[in-house]
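User: Could you write out the 3D structure of this protein bound to zinc ion? I've included everything you need below.
Assistant: Certainly. Input first, then the structure.
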Amino acid sequence: MVPRENGGIAGTSLRRNMSRTIGVTTAEGIATGLVEGEELVGKLRMHEEEPGAEPLFSTPPAGIAQRLAQEIAAVAAGSPVDAIGIGMPGIIQDCFIEESPNLRQLKGVNMRDLVVEALRDYRITAPVYVYNDANVLAAGLAATRGILDRFIRVWTLGHGIGFGVYPPRPGIWEGGHIVVSLDPRERYCGCGGVGHLEGIMGYRAMRLRFLDMEPDEIFDNARKRDPRCVEFVKLWHRALAAATATSIHQAGPGKFFISGFNAKHLDLNLLHQYLSEMVKMSPLQSYVLEVVPSSDEDAVIGAAVSAAQSVSAA
Ligand SMILES: [Zn+2]
């Protein structure tokens, strides 16, 4: 047996066993990074759109795959990698995109096949995995905080409302579309469903509700005691409390992270107050809420760590 504390040999073999994976996220543009074990090597590569280039939401699926392959090849820089993990928006089962309200052209597309095909031009043959982007963020938060052995959940408050879980569990987990209102007038969700969390909290939904002000102004005006905005900000917090309470009643208490560019509007005390009114069974009250800054780095690490786990499970 090699004495581990005596340096060289064990250290070298540990390093050789550590996976080299590439993580990609498409949340706000394309961010790509090389990850060894659970750590980012070097800097994140951010895809810079050439002036006049087609934006991602109007690019056909094969074009998106080509752009992803280009970024992956640039980060691999000719060195072999063990696996590639990509986070994308939508309902994704086994790398197949069943639904993607924000990149509608991807519905029904097997993204893995397209990226594998596009990577052939770069002679990259590592296995490719595609995951829901909120799930990769959950994996990244667990990895960077050293809690890969725990069950965690994350809300992302952005244009839509994402919900990610780690470790991956069978099921759909579209927490952003949890029904939090029985009012038939609540119909602002991007998916078209009535009464959904995203229909209250989503950026686009807030713009539709308040045609005369931007979401940031709604929160500003609530601080200035504009009655309509004050009422809405309460509803916004109650909606997140309701969806969180629903998740607690189904999957149990535990850690909830809250991220995304609109998390800046969150009043954690108010959320706690509403949640305590909604969760009354004592075994369920040990939940923890934590607001974390939006980080492409966490998501890229999560995509890479998920890919490494998929490889070892295969
Ligand atoms: Zn919905």
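Residues 34 and 40 are 6 Å apart (CA to CA).
User: Perfect, thank you.
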